[in-house]
Amino acid sequence: MTKPVKDNQMALQREFQHFMLKEIYEQPESIGRGVAQYVASLGSSAPSFHALPEANCFEEIQILACGTSLHAALVGQFVLEQVAQIPTRVRSASEFLAAPLPVTRQTLLIVVSQSGETADVLAAMRLANQQSSSGLAGFKVFAITNNSHSAIAQQADYERSVGAGVENSVAATKTFTAQLVLFYGLALAWGRQRDRIPDEQWVTWQSRMAALPSQVDQVLQQDDSIAAIARSLKHTNHIILLGTGINYPIALEGALKLKETTYTHAEGYAAGEFLHGSIALLDHTIPTIALCPTPPFRSDPSLENPPSEGGDQMLKVTQRIRRNGSDVIAIGGSEAAIALPLCDQLLSPFLTVIPLQLLAYHLAIARNIEVDRPRNITKSLNSF
Which residue ranges does the record assign to the SIS domain (predicted)? Predict the structure, then answer.
């Protein structure tokens, strides 16, 4: 049995048998630190990060990452485009090596790696720098890591640590949400600099992000219920996860967590796209996890849900899945197996990802898998 892990700094006085669970429970604290550093501290007018590019220094953003960091980048893309209105593209670092995206002097290249040592990201950075030194571009590189002393951080023009603290488990959890906080902070800062966020909306953003730690804690309080769902899936070989809009990357991240920690074949899909062929996979043995956060706020234009992100599409898809005889496990929504606090859609990834992390953890435990050290995967330990 794994020796219990203790942390006297945690608000919850409990023992954790594994680093992964401990790090999941540290997220209210790490999110709160990030919000204080990257959102609350920005001030009220034309906020800027120290020693980072101003919004008028670039016209587009490209983001390179791998694995969990790639999914954080996809959420970041959504926020950068919807809030700051900056055209943004996301690419797997390994695919960038195969076919580099065209860049210009007006491009800001963001590279994301929790360890700061990811080989594909380093190689992609070097390829981009070769283009720049050859006179093909001249863009700047901004690194987001959890280790300011890492190779990626040292080789970038700009860098920021997400400040999540040491993450020992191979499966990334708290570094994922810490990356999200930084992306939201960047989108808000650059959005303000570009006059995309009026004063009243800025105040609303700050207050709603300040509420995230307590809302995440509310989700964590459902741990026992999530563990029971995990035990019911012990003999399940395939799981489908569905999301829409900003929660599509969370469906991808949940599928990755299930694959890497429980060895379950899991696939994440955009809910509407799932109907275009992939629904043929379903039968009564394959459950579907549907991410259905319900937003209560519709009066604030900066936080209002895009029309394509409403719950109607997910409702139609899940109804069809049920008619086909497959089980649906809803996270959020009116028929939730796992309830979520009410929040705006643009902030919902902080809440929808937590049940998926806990589900992956408890399913791995039910299957007697060494959750902190899954097979075939290695990880660089990092500091903050």
Answer: 48-196, 229-374
Structure tokens at 153: 């951080």
Q: Is the pTM of this model over 0.70?
A: yes
How far is the C-alpha of 273 from the C-alpha of 277, rounded, in Å?
Answer: 8
Average confidence (pLDDT) over 354-378: 95
Same domain (yes/no): 25, 134: yes
Task: Determine the structural domain holding residue 282 and report its residue range.
Answer: 212-366
Give the DSSP letter string of 135-184. TS---EEEEEES-TTSHHHHHSSEEEE-------SSS--HHHHHHHHHHH
In terms of domains, do 38 and 166 share one? yes
The confidence score (pLDDT) of residue 135 equals 55
Tokens found for residue 104:
């210009």
User: Is residue 7 over pLDDT 50?
Assistant: no
**Residues 195 and 66 reside in one and the same domain:** yes
Number of domains in the chain: 2
Stretch 365-377: mean pLDDT, rounded?
Answer: 94
Question: Is 327 found in the same domain as 355?
Answer: yes
Q: What is the pLDDT of residue 133?
A: 59
Q: Is residue 310 part of a domain?
A: yes
DSSP letter at 63 equals: E
